[in-house]
Amino acid sequence: MTPTLVRHQSPAASAPPAQACARARDWAEIQERMLVPLYEAVYERLEVGPATRLLGLGCGSGLALLMAASHGARVTGVDTRPERLALARERLLPEGVWGRVGERDGARVLEGGPQAAGPAGARYNLVTSFEPVGCAAGDADGLVPALEAGVGLAERGAVVVLAGWGPPERCATSGVLRVATRLTDAPRWRPSRRDDLEDLASRAGLRPDGSGRVACPFGYADQDSAVRGLLSTGLFDAAARATDQVQVEKELAEALHPHLRRDGTVWMPNVFRYLIARTP
Length: 280
Hints:
InterPro entries: Methyltransf_25, SAM-dependent_MTases_sf. Pfam families: Methyltransf_25. By secondary structure, the protein is of the alpha/beta class. The protein has a domain of about 200 residues: Rossmann fold (3-Layer(aba) Sandwich), CATH 3.40.50. The protein has 11 helices and 9 strands. It has a 7-stranded mixed beta sheet, with helices on both faces. It has a two-stranded antiparallel ribbon with strand order 7-8.
C-alpha cells in the first residue's frame, strides 16, 4: 500500500517564492545530510522499528522520516515551510527521488503544526524534534508550544527526542555562525549552553531520561556549496535583511577560509547533543 500524503493548507496559501524553493533544495541536497549521524544514533538507541509510531516536529524535507520508515516505523511529519514539505513528499512518494518506499504503510506529511497530526490510529509513542537548538537566540521559545501540542498526541510515557548543538569549543561551525551576529543589531547566534535541552524539556513538562553526543562533521565539496548549505539553515536571514545577500555571502566565505582544505573541500568537525525525555 502506498503512503498517504496529506496537504494541510489554507485556500489562501500561495506557492512559495522561487528563492525559498531554491533554499529548500539546498537544504535537502547539501545541508540536511550533515545530521544523518544524529538520526542514526537516536534510531539505533531507541530501536526504532515496526512498533514505532513517530511524529516528527519540524520534519523539513523528510530525510529523518525516510530513515525511520526504512526501519519499518509508521511516520507522520509536520512543518510550516511548504517548500521543504514539497521535497519531503518527493522523498516519500513511491517513485520519489530517494527510491521506492511505497511498501511502507501509513506515512503522512502535513503542513501546519502538531495540531494537524492527530494520530491515524493509536497515539504516537515517539516524538522527535531534530532541528538543533542552542545556537540562535530564543530558538527554544517557539518550540515549547509545539512540543506541548505534540505531547498531547502521544501516549503516556512516550519518548520525546530533542537535539541541539554541542559545546562551542567542539563545534568548528560555531565561529562561522558568528557572522549572523556581526552583521545585524538583532543577534541571531549565541553560544550553546550545557543545559539547553534539559531546560527546554522542563519548560515543555517533559522528564529527561538519558542523553548522548554524536559527531556530525560538516563536509562540503567546495566553498560555494558550504555557503549555500549554511544559508539554507535560515540562521543568516536577519543578517541578509540588515545588510544584503552579497555581503553575507562574502563574510561567510571569509569565515570558512580556515576550514578550506588543499583539495578545495570544506571540513568542520562538530558535536551535537540529543536528549531523550518522557511524556507525563
